[in-house]
Amino acid sequence: ARLLPASDSNPIAVINTYDVGAQNSFITAIASGPGGAVYYTQAFNADPAAVSTQELVGRITVNPDTTINLTQYTITANPTATNYVDPVAITAGTDGNLWISEFNAQALLRLNPTTGVTTTYSVPTSAPALITTGPDGNLWFTEPYGNKLGQVDLSQLQTTVAIIANGEPVSAMAEIGFS
Questions:
Q1: pLDDT tens-digit readout, 104-163
Q2: How many CA within 13 A on the CB side of residue 167?
Q3: pTM score > 0.85 for this model?
Q4: I need a surface site. Which of 9, 30, 159, 161 has the fewest CB within 10 A?
Q5: Burial of 112 (0-12, 13-18, 19+ CB in 10 A)
Q6: Alpha-carbon distance 60 to 30, whole Å?
Q7: How far apart are CA 91 and CA 113, in angstroms?
Q8: How far is CA 35 from CA 32, 38, 64, 140, 173, in A?
Q9: Of the candidates 146, 117, 115, 114, which has an alpha carbon nearest to the alpha carbon of residue 129?
Q10: Local structure of residue 18 (DSSP, 8 states)
């Protein structure tokens, strides 16, 4: 497709579209992220009567011939009383992870794009909507129903590391001793 200015018939841009398999769902947000890729969120509750606790984050890399490589992460979110998830926005954090606002789950979701591991953080005041990485390196998000702005101080975020010892899973916090 060609994008044409209203007063001229010369194209000013070429638009490519890609099928990412979004049947019975809708794509809600898009952002640039780690590794020069583009990431998007996809919710599986396109039918207002449907109930779904699954969503998807897709990673798109565009090849020189304009075809794409697609990696998809299926996520099962922690549902609230509404029983469906609603990924509203996505941003790349300075910590190398993707951060997604989960409006109906009243939470922020952190996705490690290398491992696919997710962590959910509840937002105690109200549902988060838009999210971005600020010039201070932290995450900033809106809470439209609470008329608030929220901030995640990434320098204060504790990282949990899983270790397997003799076949038994062990969890520990970074920089905190354990036995």
A1: 888 899 999 988 888 889 999 999 999 999 999 999 999 999 999 999 999 887 665 555
A2: 0
A3: no
A4: 9
A5: middle
A6: 10
A7: 12
A8: 9, 9, 16, 22, 27
A9: 146
A10: -
